[in-house]
């Protein structure tokens, strides 16, 4: 299991310190939640702050766009050379075109699905993408409760991935912790995002990250 701590739950007054610490603690990716106050009812960080994160991060960035006008935001973040950029399928009229654009910028394209969006919505894009991000909470905030129906969705998506593009990864984001990591693994998840579980862990970041590496 690859582990991508979400810096949404970091201490923004000490962001560089926290990003360095999760990288040293053995995370695989640094998950960055970009919210625009329109697609979701919350507003986070733009390329100025994320470039400061990129400077100190020793692990690749996983940028999760929760925005209207994906095309504009891809242009803003592409110069930071993230490993992945994911955008929400619900907010994109031309996902195939945007996937091609992200790839042409040298970034691995990923597509995100809200809790209500069926896995079949990405079936004909699977050959073109590197990862599907399944939201297991409603996007916008950290610290929410895991929605259990996502487990069934992971299994349905896994079958589609095996048929169309077996190397495509499945990432789950929201309410992930020690309690559900085993069932996520069993369902076929490859990457987990964890915000409050990692940054709020009393036993430290290293313990938290290791407990998710099942
Ligand atoms: C929610 C974000 C998540 C969030 C996860 O919109 O996409 O990445 O920070 O936080 P936890 O792990 O606390 O549910
Ligand atoms: Zn996220």
TrEMBL record:
Entry's EC annotation: 5.1.3.1
Residues at the catalytic site: 33 (proton acceptor), 173 (proton donor)
Binding site for a divalent metal cation: 31, 33, 64, 173
Cofactor(s) in the UniProt record: Mn(2+); Zn(2+); Co(2+); Fe(2+)
GO molecular function: D-ribulose-phosphate 3-epimerase activity; metal ion binding
GO cellular component terms given for this protein: cytoplasm
Pathway: Carbohydrate degradation
Keyword Manganese found: yes
Top-level taxon of origin: Bacteria
GO terms classed as biological process: pentose catabolic process; pentose-phosphate shunt
One Pfam family this sequence matches: Ribul_P_3_epim
Residues annotated for substrate binding in this entry: 6, 64, 140-143, 173-175, 195-196
InterPro entries named among the record's database cross-references: Aldolase_TIM (IPR013785), Ribul_P_3_epim (IPR026019), Ribul_P_3_epim-like (IPR000056), RibuloseP-bd_barrel (IPR011060)
Cofactor binding: number and manner: Binds 1 divalent metal cation per subunit.
Keywords from the UniProt entry: Carbohydrate metabolism, Cobalt, Isomerase, Manganese, Metal-binding, Zinc
Catalyzed reaction equations: D-ribulose 5-phosphate = D-xylulose 5-phosphate
Signal peptide: none
Stated role: Catalyzes the reversible epimerization of D-ribulose 5-phosphate to D-xylulose 5-phosphate.
Family assignment from sequence similarity: Belongs to the ribulose-phosphate 3-epimerase family.
Name of the protein described by the UniProt record: Ribulose-phosphate 3-epimerase
């Amino acid at each position: 299991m690859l582990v991508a701590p979400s810096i949404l739950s970091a201490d923004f007054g000490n962001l560089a310190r926290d990003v360095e610490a999760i990288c040293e603690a053995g995370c695989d990716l640094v998950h960055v939640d970009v919210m625009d106050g329109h697609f979701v009812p919350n507003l986070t960080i733009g390329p100025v702050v994320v470039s400061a994160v990129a400077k100190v991060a020793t692990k690749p960035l996983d940028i999760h766009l929760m925005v209207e006008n994906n095309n504009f935001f891809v242009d803003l973040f592409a110069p930071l050379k993230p490993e992945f950029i994911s955008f929400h399928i619900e907010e994109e009229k031309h996902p195939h075109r945007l996937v091609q654009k992200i790839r042409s910028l040298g970034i691995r394209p990923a597509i995100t699905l809200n809790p209500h969006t069926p896995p079949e919505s990405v079936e004909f894009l699977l050959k073109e993408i590197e990862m599907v991000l399944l939201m297991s909470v409603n996007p916008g905030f950290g610290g929410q409760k895991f929605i259990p129906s996502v487990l069934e969705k992971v299994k349905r998506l896994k079958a589609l991935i095996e048929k169309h593009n077996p190397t495509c990864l499945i990432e789950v984001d929201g309410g992930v912790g020690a309690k559900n990591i085993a069932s996520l693994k069993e369902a076929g998840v490859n990457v987990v995002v964890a915000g409050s579980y990692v940054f709020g862990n009393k036993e430290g970041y290293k313990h938290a990250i290791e407990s998710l590496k099942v």
